[in-house]
Every structure is written in C-alpha cells, then in structure tokens.
Amino acid sequence: DFVEALAEPPMREVFQKGHAEWGFSLKMDSGKILQGSIDLWAELDDKVYIIDYKTGSSVYVKSAFEQMQIYSNALKKIGACSLNKPHILVAIYPLEGKVVSSNANSAKHS
Fold first, then answer.
1. pLDDT 10s digits, 55-68
2. How far is CA 51 from CA 9, 27, 30, 32, 70, in A?
3. What pTM was estimated for this model as a whole?
4. Beta bridge partner(s), residue 91
5. In the chain, which residue ranges form alpha helices assigned H by DSSP?
6. Which residues pair with 27 in a beta bridge?
7. Closest C-alpha among 8, 104, 6, 96 to residue 59
8. Other Cβ atoms closer than 10 A to 75
9. Residue ranges with strand state E in the chain
C-alpha cells in the first residue's frame, strides 16, 4: 500500500502512535468556537506530524496547508502536543501517488 510504505513521514510509526479522525473544539480569542477533525496526527520522538488525506488535485495544496496550519495551532493551544518540536504538515494524495510536506508556519512548501 502506497501510504503505509512511506518512509517520510514514517507512516507505520504514525499509525501505531498516532490519533486518527481526532476531533477537537477550541474557543477562539474572538469567543467563537472552532471545531475540526484531523485525519491523522502523531507526536514522535523529534517531530509532530499532521497528516491530511486528499482525494482532490494537488493543485490545491496551498489550501491543504492552510487547513493543517489551523490544526497545528489548535493542537498547540489545546496542549495536546509539544510546543518545542517542529510540526510537519503532510498532504497525501493517494490517487496521484503524491506526498507534499511543509513545516508549520513556513511560507515554503516542499
């Protein structure tokens, strides 16, 4: 399987230690409630991975990273993960066999 065989992110470890379909609710400074569901996230030894599976085109990867940045901020604000480890945002496009990743809060996507 394409996804399970990925070495970066280390999907086997992410599946073992991670949280799938992780729902959250967060009160924003504005008083509004932000609710969401993260496809998959895991805090490993040196990084926090936030993974979003996409069935659409990777042409829209910028939107995927904007969404995952919100997830990263929510995880930090809720206190669900380390603030000191880098957060790696990963968009997986299984239909294209493509993986695109970025550091959270980074303007560049690789």
1. 989 999 999 999 99
2. 9, 23, 27, 25, 12
3. 0.89
4. 52, 100
5. 11-17, 61-78
6. 33
7. 96
8. 24
9. 19-27, 33-43, 48-53, 87-93, 98-103
